[in-house]
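Structure, all two chains, one model.
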Amino acid sequence: GAVVSQHPSRVICKSGTSVKIECRSLDFQATTMFWYRQFPKKSLMLMATSNEGSKATYEQGVEKDKFLINHASLTLSTLTVTSAHPEDSSFYICSAITGTGGHNEQFFGPGTRLTVL
Amino acid sequence: AQSVTQLGSHVSVSEGALVLLRCNYSSSVPPYLFWYVQYPNQGLQLLLKYTSAATLVKGINGFEAEFKKSETSFHLTKPSAHMSDAAEYFCAVSFSGNTGKLIFGQGTTLQVKP
């Protein structure tokens, strides 16, 4: 099956610094990638939809200046948490699909655990 | 508006017993429905999906789900639970014509007792 990787798997940073998380589709070209945030014991909250070569579409309530998304190629999307604060600590998961349409399976990365001190 | 509701945030069964995880959806257009499983500190793995073909969908690891339009439900079942089934399960919905954006239910933690 299709594989999506994330790097790093864990990151600890100081408050006020920026952190970049990479999401790669290893064996397929992803027309669309999604970024989710998951709080402990909670469901996944979609943050944004990322299409290669275009600006990301952010969900309501997500600060696009704080969560910068770049989809530079069909196999790589990055999420940068700028000026991170403790409340940004969370589990961030990306997913990728090929093609368009709601029936397409999303392939999920293993997640990145961000801890902001 | 479209939404997904999973009844029961925590389900506990004995090993070998039937597993039933409930999912109801709300949608004004035909949905695509998915069940995902998540193990601790990992991403999500697709168990099965309904995409308007057969209403009874068989997935991996012995799981299956039945789409019931009249009840707006897509409950997940497995005849006999195994210890390795203990995990978090998420029901999700997507819609024709969209980019593939998923709306997730709140999740159900399945505990399997020996």
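Chain B has a mean pLDDT of 92.
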